[in-house]
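<instruction>
Derive structure tokens from the sequence
<data>
Labelled lines for chain and fold
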Amino acid sequence: MAILKDPQVSERLRVIPEQIYVERHVRPKYACRNCEGSGDEEKAAVRVAPAVPSIIPKSIVTPGLLAFIFVNKYVDHLPFYRQEKRFERIGVVISRQDMSHWQGTVYTALKPLYELMRGQLRSGPVLRMDETTVQVMDEPDRKDTQKSYMWLSLGGPPEKPVAWYSYRETRSSKHIHEFLDGFSGYLQTDGYEGYDTAVKAFPGIVHAGCFAHARRKFFEASSVTKKPGKAEEGLSRIGKLYRIEQDLRSRNLDPETFCSLRREQAQPILSSFRDWLEKSASHVPPETLIGKAVSYTLGEWEKLVRYLDSPYLTPDNNACENAIRPFVLGRKNWLFSGSPHGAESSCGLYSLIETAKLNGQNPYWYLAYVFEQVPLITHQEQWETLLPWNVKIPSKPQVP
């Protein structure tokens, strides 16, 4: 039977389960007879080749293992106790306590890199902020059941974005003062009054609002009735603004032209929307969901329309909400932080990973590269090379 020239080819996917192997380092010892009995400690009789530099000296971890553990937790939302079980299934004993200790050690080692990112955060034209709750154990003078807060600031130049996570015990506006210190430009947030209070102390900051929150309130109002009414009308008007935004941004216009066209097309819709809101406010009960939606939108109006003033502003704060979502998803799995230091180190890893993602980096390869390079740093300037927008990683790097 003859073999035809064009055989049929089919493909199937096969998976190789996770594998861990031992990387063995042999360090030769050298003896020098001329140094014996010299009494000079600088000329020891027996010398050993130097150990491979490690971000956690005298430990079993490699940069790749650390990156694997942290990506599992902060990207794929697997707490350390679940990872401990996964390691057991492939025959390796790595306790959750060890992983927690490694996290704290890495966080301390990377502090110079975090400070560089934090300095970059305030250098852009827009700073976006959001916050969510977190439960932290062993806080001084506080019960373990009390809620603390994880704050997110999203900023930096548009081509070098930074996501910065900060843990604080409360939601007080005094923390916002701290985050805004040194920043000048637009601050975009939701309607939490703490931001309004804080902004008053910074004349160089212009506060912009979030149409997504206004839209959400109209959506909640529409979900409690089967008949179309004012809630659907509000949603329709907001939808028109988003369609204009989407269309203009898809055209890659220069900033000046973009702002001009956006204002020209959106302003009539906004004016009509404002008139509709004011008329509706006198006809709907304020305690109803539609009444609350109308009241919220009118109360935030001056901040909501400020997005027209800058090409770097969007109608909403969704970019910030998207950046804080990984933390919210992770919180559903690990539930709480074991200590304030654990919460702070989690902030550092979230900041590094989410900033890497915003700058187009694969978080595993980026972390592995950083962990490999940190012990080799001898000058402060070298930390600059490890910022996510400065790192160029090969498409298929060697696993460290």
Summary: The chain has 14 helices and seven strands. Strands lie at 29-31, 46-48, 126-135, 147-155, 162-168, 185-188, 205-208. The first strand starts at residue 29 and ends at 31. Residues 211-313 form one domain.
